[in-house]
Amino acid sequence: MQNANTNDRVGYCLGIVDLFLAKAAAGRDKDREFCAALFEHGYVTPEAALALTGEMPLDEASHRRLRATIRRWAQAARDAGHALPDA
At what angle do helices 60-79 and 16-26 cross, to 10 degrees? Predict the structure, then answer.
């Protein structure tokens, strides 16, 4: 993609699970809401997100926190009535 939003530089689109993981690792409130919506609408499954966490350039403690965050967000989506597979 290349447009005014990228300052006319080429910007590469991430895969949806990669985008989810980048936002989950950032941990901002707005990112949590975005990631929850990806779960709720079936664009990302907890399994797919958890499967790729090990490929992120994070130390082991950060990997554990990220996996815990993904599980917590998935459970919150289930508690809200969304049908998600178990992670």
Answer: 100
Q: What is the pLDDT of residues 73-82, one digit of tens each?
A: 999 988 999 8
Q: Between the CA of residue 44 and those of 24, 38, 73, what are the distances in Å?
A: 12, 6, 12
Say how far apart CA 14 and CA 87 lie, in whole Å.
23
Reading the block at residue 68, the tokens are 């815990």
Amino acid at 23: K
- For the whole model, what pTM was predicted? 0.79
End-to-end CA separation in angstroms for the chain: 33
Tell me the residue type at 59.
D
Distance CA 30, CA 7 (A): 24
